[in-house]
Amino acid sequence: MTPFWIALQFLTVLPIELKTTPTAQQNGRAILFYPLVGLIIGGILFLVACLLAKLPVVLLAAIILTLWIWLTGGLHLDGLADTADAWVGGFGDKQRTLQIMKDPSCGPIGVLSLVIICLLKFALVFVLIDQHQTLFLVFVPALGRVVPSILFLTTPYVREKGLGRSLTDHLPKTVSWIVAALILLLPLYWEWQGLIAVIGFLISLIYLRYLFIKRIDGITGDTVGATIEISETVLLFTFVLSCFYL
Question: Which residues cross the membrane (predicted)?
């Protein structure tokens, strides 16, 4: 169970203490449990939404989004901000882009990307609650955490050192594909609406992967975080869109 506790500690702010330092192999296996951690996050969001259902929708949506960000420690939002800064400031150059990603400070483009993604997620959560589709929140973080395994399985990791390198080298490939496929089937509970949402999610993932390969010949930890945030937003958007047009 150590890989699960590693995943839970890395992806959330829950007070998990590991007795020993994880090995590279354990870190690689931990990625198999990322979607399960996503389900736990989604389950907490859904439970809170149910408990506070009598609150005004706008307030409840704000609480849910705040809780979502807090539970994840803003981990992937940080990656989004770094990637946005690097993409604009890199001027198409690979080395400059990678160098900017290492800078811990957040520039105006990074801040703007955070404002945009949080505004969109807030509006989409608001609509989900308003349309009595709050259950879909359970599965959004789970699908978002399928992103790392898919990217690590299909895309070169461009940095020589770091957590991403151990994940790439020790990720169980066959089991990872099985887990990813099973998680991607979950939204089909909503039939056509769920299918459209998954298609939108996969299209965004494939397109972002294409952009990363074109600019930096692969991925970094920051680009993985950015992909999680963007693909989750696209998943929510396509699902909400299908609710009104199907």
Answer: 31-52, 57-77, 109-129, 136-154, 174-190, 195-212, 224-245
Residue 214 in tokens: 């074109």
Q: Which domain holds residue 22?
A: 1-245
- Among residues 198, 211, 205, the alpha carbon closest in space to that of 237 is found at 198
Cα–Cα dist 28/13, whole Å: 20
Q: Can you list the residues of the chain whose pLDDT is less than 50?
A: none
Give the integer Cα–Cα distance in Å for 32 and 142: 12
Tokens linked to 9: 């500690």
CA distance 246 to 241: 8
**Residues 6 or more apart whose Cβ sits within 8 Å of residue 235:** 140, 143, 144, 187, 197, 198, 200, 201, 204
- Coil vs helix vs strand at 129: helix
Please give the Cα distance from 38 to 170 (Å, whole number): 21
Structural domains of the chain, count: 1
Tally of CB atoms within 10 A around 88? 16
DSSP one-letter string for 155-187: S-B--SSSHHHHHHHH--HHHHHHHHHHHHHGG
Tell me: the pLDDT tens digits for 116-144? 999 999 999 999 999 999 999 999 999 99
